[in-house]
Structures are given as C-alpha cells and as structure tokens.
Amino acid sequence: MTASLVTGQYVDPRSAKKPFKEYAEEWRAIQPHRPATAKAVAQYLRCYVYPRWEKRALGAIKPGDVQSWVTSLTTTHGLAASTSRTVFNTVNAVFRAAVRDRMIPHNPCAEAKLPSVPRKKIVPLAVEQVRTLSEAIPARYKGLVLLGAATGLRPGASSSASSLDTRTCCTRPSRSSSRSSRPPSTACTSARPRPLAHTARSRSPAWRCMR
Fold it and tell me: Partner of 153 for a Cys bridge, out of 13, 26, 92, 157, CB 3.0 to 4.6 A?
C-alpha cells in the first residue's frame, strides 16, 4: 500500500464498490459526444450493459465476466460482430475512465477477445453499369459519377475535389471545401493526387460545370 501511495497508483477499495451504472452515467454525462453518438451510447448501455451490470460494483467485474458478456452479445442478443465491437468499445471507455479516476486498479476489458468482422468483398461496377448510371442521372452529375468510378474516391472526397491538373491528368481533393461541422476524413484531407482515367478526363468539363 505504501508503494502505491508513493507512486500515485493507490486505489481506495471503497471507490471500487461504486455501482457500474452509477459511474457509467456520470461518465456519459461529461462526454463531448455529438447528439447522435450520445443517443447511441445511451442505447447501448441501456439495452446491452445495464441489464447485466446495473448494480454490480465496478471492482467486482472481472476479465472473465467481460469475456462472457462479449460472447453473449452475438450468441444471446444476436448482434453482428461489428455492432458487438461498438458496444464493447463503449464499455471499455467507461472502464478506462474508471482506471484514470482511480476507481479501480485495472481495466477488465484489457485483454478481451472480440468477434471477428468478416471482410466484405468489393465488386466494382462494370463499365456498362457506370455508363448506364451516368446517363440516367441529371447532366450536372454525370462527371461526378465518372470521377468516382475512375478514381475510387468516396462521395465526400469526390465532391471536394477542387483541382484538375490537365497536364498530369490527376485530381487533388480540397482540404477546406467541406461544409460539415464534423472533422474531415483522411480521404478528404489527403493531398495525394489521383490519376484520372481517359473516360473521366473526357467528361471533366461536365464535372467543372457541376461545381
């Protein structure tokens, strides 16, 4: 105990007796979550966590308890692996905060094994499918469809691509064109140029008219 006091790692055993729900609600109330995220976190806790650990003391929840709970998310609740991981991340965040607040000495989520998320096979559209799609939408958007098909840019990055280099036949996403209050994604902020295929280059005037 003396060593823990000296190193600043001492945890008062009384703190670990605090009910999980009580601490989790305190944690949730001070998080700078966006409204949608705050709503999702509240739902995860209410539906998948509190029924299991509502009145359980923080210090009484062991790694084995967490592993059993994680497994039950898919076997009992029928959640997809990706959703199970998201719910787990919420609980892990609560326990990490409890460790920082010296409520418990260790995070019981630290070595939990999570369900594997199957990788989805990406099947690109055939040339004829892209051509059909570009012809079916308003003329001002045709270039955007061809740009996305030719470069693989996501919608946000495609709409923010502001520089077309006719010499190198490349496009470069803009760093400041997003109107959203959310931080831009890596794809939207990368300055790496994307080469344009001939089909997209031939439609570049239509793309410029769209902007």
Answer: 157
What is the residue whose two structure tokens read 């061809």? Answer: 146
Domain ranges of the chain: 12-100, 127-210
Q: Quick one: fold of 12-100? A: DNA polymerase; domain 1 (1.10.150)
What sign results for the dihedral spanned by CA atoms 24, 26, 29, 30? negative
Identify the CA nearest to 89 among candidates 40, 127, 125: 40
Query: Which residue matches tokens 């000495």?
Result: 105
Q: Which of 12-26, 105-119, 148-162, 169-183 has the lowest mean pLDDT?
A: 169-183
- Tell me the torsion sign for CA atoms 107, 54, 114, 44: negative
Q: Is-contact 144 158, C-beta < 8 A?
A: yes
- pLDDT tens, position by position, 51-72: 999 999 999 999 999 999 999 9
